[in-house]
Design a protein that fits this description.
It contains seven helices and two strands. Strands 1-2 form a two-stranded antiparallel ribbon. It is mainly α.
Length: about 190
């Protein structure tokens, strides 16, 4: 394996979570599946820092805590949560994302009046729905799960504004429109 494989292993280990709750795991050697020793983690850190043009914020924060997992979680849980939200939105399965999008639209509809709701027909293409609403979902999850209060408030306002704009320009989005034609018999 190369250094970029190790960086992926590091990111996967440090951002491990259980339903948005951070649960970082020890960084393990892929050959023997044993956790790296502290001196190995230092060597990897300095190799990354001085030999390749790559900055890894989480690994740097882990370095600042002397590779102590307890201190890392205690000091930087807010950063881990932000990263977990991003990974959840952009790496989860389509079924899971679709479920979250439906919940998001349902919550948005509760804030709107009965006349101003986004209604998605069950036959609407799922891939298209996911593609369109992923950025909205990111703001929605940030507004619900971020540990940074200002971030939560900002993303909630951004979410509402963007969804209202979306609705204003696409009032019939996701609905099934049936056209009838009259047939005249002679």
């Amino acid at each position: 394996f190369n250094i970029f494989d190790i960086i992926k292993i590091i990111n996967t280990s440090l951002t491990h979570n259980d339903n948005m709750f951070s649960d970082p795991q020890p960084i393990k050697n892929p050959y023997d599946n044993l956790p790296f020793q502290k001196h190995n983690l230092y060597n990897i850190y300095f190799f990354i820092k001085f030999n390749i043009n790559h900055y890894n914020e989480l690994y740097h924060k882990f370095f600042l805590t002397n590779f102590c997992m307890t201190s890392f979680i205690h000091k930087y849980e807010y950063i881990l949560r932000e990263e977990n939200i991003k990974r959840y939105v952009y790496t989860s399965s389509n079924e899971r994302i679709l479920k979250e999008i439906k919940k998001m639209i349902e919550d948005f509809n509760l804030t709107m009046g009965l006349a101003d709701q986004i209604l998605i027909h069950s036959d609407f293409p799922k891939e298209k729905l996911i593609q369109i609403f992923k950025p909205y979902l990111y703001c929605y999850l940030q507004s619900n799960f971020s540990m940074i209060a200002i971030n939560r408030n900002y993303n909630y306002q951004k979410f509402l504004f963007n969804m209202e704009e979306f609705y204003r320009y696409n009032k019939l989005f996701g609905r099934r429109i049936l056209k009838t034609t009259k047939v005249f018999k002679l």
